[in-house]
Amino acid sequence: MSQRTYAVIGLGAIGLGMAQSLLRADLNVIGCNRGPGPLKIFAGNGGRTTHDPAEAAKAADVLFLAVVNAAQAEDVLFGRGQAARALKPGSLVIDCVTVKPAFAREMERRLAELGLLYLDAPVSGGPAQSAAGQLSIMASGLPEAFARAETGLKAVASVVHRLGDEAGKGSAMKVVNQLLAGTHIAVAAEAMALGLRMGLAAEDVYAVITSAAANSWMFETRMKHVLSGDYTPLSAVDIFVKDLGIVSETTREQAMPAPLAAAALQQFVAAQARGLGREADAAVIKTFPGIELPSKE
């Protein structure tokens, strides 16, 4: 049997690293992105590229979808991109987008009608983990989908959690993850802001907390932006407005109160309203009054 071809649609902070990891595993890979910058990077490393999702899908046996949100996923597969109809029957879509569980279930149903497999597979990890092929993937889907995905998943992830035989469970777990991630970032910013407000140096707050029981991975990674004064986005404020919005909708549908997630969402909305949506998610600290933040050297 000839070697499978893998397509990655959406070469952003996560998708580009995934495509590079697949290429590094000596797989046939085609990268697809609307903007030219990531395509140039990927082509420079030996990857095939295209701007056209349908062209990428036509060449692919396994398609990784790494766009920003559900609307973009819908558009790529069934809208302007027409990728779903370009895929050969029996091909697999691995959906790495953070979406509501119901959306994942609907994607599985619609793709099955076209004779296609679907794996609900949102990811955790930043650009560094993606570039190193060390993402964590929360996946659910049919056994046949997992079997076809195995080689590609090994290339992009250090751990794959199998959460069930139907779509939706992977996305449900990502909702849980994003509830924690968003609230951790918001409370990390609040704690740092309080320290600054009381006259503590940002460097001292960071040094003490990262060696104390109150530390978290989000405090450690996000407050580095505050120390450096560099809010270049890897994960932006806009992402957590979206993701905590999904958390809010989901908890409402489940008739479950989630007051901490709701408070965190409002902090990110406040940051977005101040024009900080395209900055790193740590820029949520800029919503707190009466503090002087370190400036970029």
Automatic annotation (TrEMBL):
The active site is at K174. Residues 168-287 form the 3-hydroxyisobutyrate dehydrogenase-like NAD-binding domain. One of its GO terms (molecular function) is NAD binding. Residues 6-161 form the 6-phosphogluconate dehydrogenase NADP-binding domain. Its EC number is 1.1.1.411. Belongs to the HIBADH-related family. L-threonate dehydrogenase subfamily. Catalyzes oxidation of L-threonate to 2-oxo-tetronate. Can use either NAD(+) or NADP(+) as cosubstrate, with a preference for NAD(+). This is L-threonate dehydrogenase. It comes from Desulfovibrio fairfieldensis.
